[in-house]
Amino acid sequence: MDKNLQPFIDWLMTLQWERLLPEFLGKAGGFLAGILVSWFLLFRRRLNAIQRLQSGDSDDFVFQVHYLSPDDTNDSAAVDGPSAGEVETSASQVAEQMPQRWVLLFRNMAPKTTLNDLYDNIAVREAVEKAANDCTLADPILNTEGTLGFELVNDAMGHIAGLFAVTSIPREPWLFAMTCEDRTVVRKKCVRCFLIRPDDLRRFADWKWCRQCVSVEKPWHWFRIVALHRIAIAWLDEEKQQLLEALQDRSAAMPLVDKQVRHDRIRSLSLGVYRDDQPIGAPCRIDWSKRIVDLERLGLKLEST
Fold it and tell me: Mind listing the UniProt keywords for this protein, alphabetically (predicted)?
């Protein structure tokens, strides 16, 4: 045996293998297990993110403005023609008999943000997620309650108001509502902050007018008409509540001291928003006879509202 190896062999003989081997195997096993667990957690996190994206769930906040554009595609097919004994009606008279039709346009008005970017308070984030999950077709507005709910609406309003604070477009009143539309009718479930002018929203309270006079840009946009109708109903109820509260003594109901047990979910603000956009393509008229059946199957009846 080589004399140079003898010291090394003697050193190996002096080692306490009954302790060294278990410690080595234990530490090596722990190290490998840590690597495997870390890889599994990262891989699982990636799978969850992909699954969440495919399912349509999102933490995005989208700000969308809504307005009505005149529909110039009115034709005589929407009006019953004259009988054989009647005098033929001129095109101008037909146009007068037909109600004015409108195209509902909605556009993203600001870069989207996320729940974490908009709210740095964990409690507020959880409140937003819970309120969004509780939204339904009948009530798409986030049900915010108390001081916490009042503040989360204020923060969202302040965010969009700050983005448009320096615009040169003349300001006018807009209504603001935080919504989360039902996953059964939208591709992506996220918080959408709606803005619409008061006069336009008041029209949507009439369901007959919605069915007869409103077209959309794409066939699948019909659900937005339903959402705006439900928001309009809620807004009119809030206006009635405001009139009742105006008759009461609320001198102590200041923002800094009031608990905001009840507050308006549809708020007014002044913004300068571009609203002269044009429809994309030919307006699409909705066949509500089919959609009403779908809505009733989902538990929402609108014919009587």
Answer: Membrane, Transmembrane, Transmembrane helix
